Amino acid sequence: MNAFLLHVCASFLIALPLGAGTLPNDFNGRFDTVTARRHLDVLASDDMRGRNTPSPELERAADYIADQFRSFGLEPLNGSYFHGYHLERMHLAEPTTLTILKGRDTVHMALKADFIPFEMSGTGNADIRNKRVVFAGFGITVPEQQYDDYAGIDARDAVVLVMRGEPSSMRQHGSMTEKIRNARSHGAVAILAVDAMRGRALTVSGYPWPMLYPNLPKDAVPLMWTKPDVKLLPVFHVGEAVLKALVDSVGVLRGRCALIDSLCAPQSMELPGVRISCVVTFVRDSVPVRNVVGLLKGAVHPDEYVVMGAHYDHIGTGRPNEKGDSIFNGADDNASGTAGLLMNAEAFAKGAARPDRSILFIAFSAEERGLLGSKAYAATPLLPLAKCVGMLNMDMIGRSENGKLSIGGHLRCPDLIAINEEENKAADRPFTLAYDIEAYFFRSDQASFAMKRIPVLFYFTGEHGDYHRQGDEIAKINFADLVRISSLAGRVAWRVAGSPRSTYLPAGWED
């Protein structure tokens, strides 16, 4: 190459901004134990009283995170660093009734003794009267196993009786949430759930509503978030008295359930000559809650983005332990992940270059209440989810032992897994990566994005004896590895922001 051409090329390269292929040289240096400890000293302090959702301390934590985002130079969305949403405290109230009509007999079931609404129950239509009853086995549909409890029955405008759990040959299909979703999609108006498998007692549990159990605190009520456009079905846990009123023989029903389990084949049917009427009444209090958001715009495709997330809430306070400690500080769960999120936000914002795509940093609230903050964000996003190319979640990354790091998402997101393995291998001290947390996949905020078929990675250092106990304190945090995990997640996010869209392999339960 002649000297003139070399000079022209050099000038051209100097004029170009660094792209996603060039991670700033000082990126890893922006992650350090002093910064990590500073964030945990705030978030996991006794003054934060466990950051329960909702609480004044949770709001203080949100303000702290927003102030950090602002100081780093991240951009707000729609003029704010907050994504606000509302939860509802649900109080069971009268009238709540369940009546069974069989022939000329009318049987009024007793609330608490015979039936109890679940916390995920709704009120449904105001007038659920004289409805047919269909037995729908486990109430699940698994196309890849050619299994459908609703095949051959008409659940439209009917009450469905379903068993809790799933056939013993299946995994991850037996949640009540999935049963409710399936019943609603088949047109059911209410659900009766029962523990009908042999060896299980036909006792009633449902939710321990303070109205039914006076010794419970009056504020021991569920906190729920519901999609604005979804009307929830009434869902009851029922016991032996209800079954005896519905079928001639509880033993016959148990036998049918055992047959389903042994053959993995539905035995669904309409229950002849039986009708049900029911009413559920809730008094609801609206509670405002906030996720915290900050945006770093990409250099090439700023309209597309990667989410880096961590939940910042924990479980608050409780009965004092033997040391007199009543505060669940949640240092690992999840002040550690929040610190990782903040360090990444600062490293990206203060770096010498920008990634190709934007990075959206989100600190989620109400994860401990059932991923409610991330569910609310995924349902009402501030940026179009169609433009989101990946989500990286850090939850409990502060207690690594022997250099082990567990990764979730390997069954669904092979492209992201490959990038993560490459970046880990290139590190000065690679982690021993383990793909052993599939059972936890639904229990952290990446699940809310996976449900939308967005590729995800989940960073997790494992459960321990201090999980949801007062002993989850700063003194037990492995700060050196917390920093290394946070930096690894950041390098992967940079790579994802500059790579072709990743492949997502559906698991069968996504929206």
Structure summarized in a few sentences:
With 511 residues, the protein is α/β, with parallel strands linked by helices.
Helices and strands in order, then pairings?
Elements: H1 3-15, H2 33-43, H3 56-72, E1 82-102, E2 105-108, E3 115-117, E4 128-135, E5 141-142, E6 147-148, E7 158-163, H4 176-185, E8 190-194, E9 223-224, E10 235-238, H5 240-246, H6 250-263, E11 269-296, E12 301-311, H7 331-349, E13 357-364, H8 372-379, E14 388-394, E15 404-408, H9 414-426, E16 432-434, H10 446-450, E17 456-460, H11 479-497
Parallel strand pairs: 4-7, 7-8, 8-10, 12-13, 12-14, 14-17, 15-16
Antiparallel strand pairs: 1-2, 1-9, 1-11, 3-10, 4-11, 5-6, 11-13, 15-17
CATH superfamily membership of the largest domain: Zn peptidases
User: What would you report as the Rg, rounded to the nearest angstrom?
Assistant: 26 Å
Query: What is the CATH first-level class name of the largest domain?
Result: Alpha Beta
Oligomer: single chain
Order of helices and strands: HHHEEEEEEEHEEEHHEEHEHEEHEHEH
Please tell me the total number of domains: 2
What summary fits the major beta sheet?
15 strands, mixed
